Amino acid sequence: MAELTRKEVILIVAGAPDVICQRSEHRVCLAGVDLSGLDLRGLNLAHADLAGADLRACDLSDARLFEADLSSADLTDALLCGVYADGATFVAARLVRADFRKSRRDLFYGTHLIGADFRGADVTEARFDGARLSGAQFDEPRHDPTTGSLSRPNGAAAAGTARHGPAQRVERVRPLPIFSKSSAFSCARTAIPSIDAA
Predict the structure, then answer these.
(1) Could you tell me the residue range of the domain that residue 175 belongs to?
(2) How far, in Å, CA of 90 to CA of 69, rounded?
(3) Which of 16, 25, 70, 122 has the most C-beta neighbours closer than 10 Å?
(4) For 60, what's the count of Cα atoms within 13 Å in the CB-facing half-sphere?
(5) What residues have CB less than 8 Å from 154, skipping those under 6 apart?
(6) If you write DSSP's letter for every residue of 1-54 in order, what string do you get?
(7) Across 117-138, average pLDDT
(8) Number of structural domains in the chain
(9) What is the pairing mode between strands 185-187 and 190-192?
(10) Global pTM?
(11) With contact defined as beta carbons under 8 Å apart, do 136 and 162 qualify?
C-alpha cells in the first residue's frame, strides 16, 4: 500500500515554491517514498526528487516531469503516456513494461523525453512509440544471439532520435529527508509541514 495518497501528494506539490530550480535543487522531495499504484495523472512534478521512489503501476500520464530526478526509481508497469520529461534523469531506474507512448488524450506536447538520461536503466518491454527522444541517452544496445539483432527499447528504433552512449558514473548531491506523516521534511529550498498538520 502506498505511503501517501494522491491528495497528500497534491498538497505537497501545492506547498512547494513555484521557482526555477538549478540541477542540484528540487522543488519537492519524495525520494524513496512508496507511491506505488497511485493516480498521479497530470501533476506538476517538475524538478521533483523522486530518486529511489516506488512508482510501480503508478499512473503518471500527462504529468510534468521536467528535469525530475527518477534515478533508481522503480517504475515497473507505470503509465507515462504524454509525460513532459525533458531533461529528466532515469539513471539505473527500473522501467520494465513502462509505457511512454504518445498521450491517449493526444495533447499538444505528446510525450517529451528530450535529453532524458536512461543510462543503466532496465527498459525491458518499455514502450516509447511516438515519444520524442532527441538527445536521450541509453546504454549501448545489446546483441541478441538468438535473433542476431540489437535490442533497443520498443519504439526507440522507430523514433530514430535516441542517442546511445556508454554508461557513465553520475555524481549527485541531494538532501536525504526522513519521511513520515507525523514529521516535517525539507528539501533544498522547500520546507513543507507534515500532512497531519495541514
Answers:
(1) 1-198
(2) 7
(3) 70
(4) 31
(5) 125, 126, 127, 128, 129
(6) --SS-HHHHHHHHHTS---PPPTT--S-B-TT-B-TT-B-TT-B-TT-B-TT-B
(7) 92
(8) 1
(9) antiparallel
(10) 0.71
(11) yes
142 DSSP assignment: E
Task: Fill in the amino acid letter for 16.
Answer: A
Residue 178: its pLDDT value, please? 36
Question: With 60 as the cut, is the pLDDT of residue 87 above it?
Answer: yes
Q: Exposure pattern of 52-62 as b/e (b: 16+ CB <10 Å)?
A: bbbbbbbbbbb
Write the CB contacts of 77 (distance below 8 Å, at least 6 apart in sequence): 56, 57, 96, 97, 98
What CATH number has the domain bearing residue 41? 2.160.20.80
Nearest to 69 by CA among 93, 100, 101: 93
For 37-86, the pLDDT digits (tens) are: 999 999 999 999 999 999 999 999 999 999 999 999 999 999 999 999 99
- Give whole-number Cα distances, 19 to 16, 75, 99, 159, 169, in Å: 9, 27, 29, 33, 28
Separation between Cα atoms, residue 196 and residue 198, nearest integer Å: 6
Q: Is residue 176 packed enough to be buried (19+ CB in 10 Å), middle (13-18) or exposed (0-12)?
A: exposed
Alpha carbons 42 and 180: distance in angstroms, whole number: 25
Q: With contact defined as beta carbons under 8 Å apart, do 103 and 110 qualify?
A: yes
Residue 27: closest CA among 60, 49, 54 = 49
Where do runs of H (alpha helix) occur along the chain? 6-14, 156-159
